[in-house]
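Internal ticket - ligand job 196, flavin mononucleotide:
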Amino acid sequence: MDDHGLGDDPLERLRSWVERGREVVPHQDSMTLATATPDGRPSARVVLLRELDDHGLTFFTNRTSRKGDELRLNPHAAVTMHWWELGRQARGEGVVEEVSEEESTAYWETRPRGSQMAAWASAQSQPLDDRAELEARVADVEERFAGGAVPLPPFWGGYRIVPESIELWIHRDNRLHDRFGYVREATGWRGQRLAP
Ligand SMILES: Cc1cc2nc3c(=O)[nH]c(=O)nc-3n(C[C@H](O)[C@H](O)[C@H](O)COP(=O)(O)O)c2cc1C
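stdout (structure tokens):
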């Protein structure tokens, strides 16, 4: 890819990396999401990037999970994506907002029924006695929604990371990589080259 310059829209370039990544890596778009407690203790996990537009990066989860609890009390998050095959890394930091119920429903309805059942059955991040407990919950949910559509759970939905800063990293020889840091300002993105 010929994108070694600073450019002026990092989200647009990130979108092109995600698209290129899909061509070379045969799996879904994953990203590492870091959240933190109000007193600044971080935690990180992988989630799937489901939407990337000018507003930010959207993922879906259980709002009562550990990440959901942390985001409720401290909406700041950081995210990283990495593609070995492309020699590219992207980082973003910003505030996370809940996506609307309409948007969550629209995505929910694209999910396979088994995934919908799992979302209802799993009190994500809570302790389980054993696997049988989870399977029993799945059986309960299957009975509850037998023959009908599975509705969006009230505890499940999307979050959008609205980036205030983005960094794009491009592999170069001898560790002399290209790094570009961008900060969102009222008039658009301000970028500068950073030492690798
Ligand atoms: C490739 C991959 C994709 C994942 N995608 C999601 C996702 O989109 N949403 C989600 O809630 N968990 C996803 N997970 C599971 C999370 O990594 C994590 O285990 C879960 O969300 C609970 O995290 P928490 O306890 O910090 O809230 C994914 C895991 C992997 C390995």
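Auto-summary: The radius of gyration is 19 Å. The mean pLDDT is 95.
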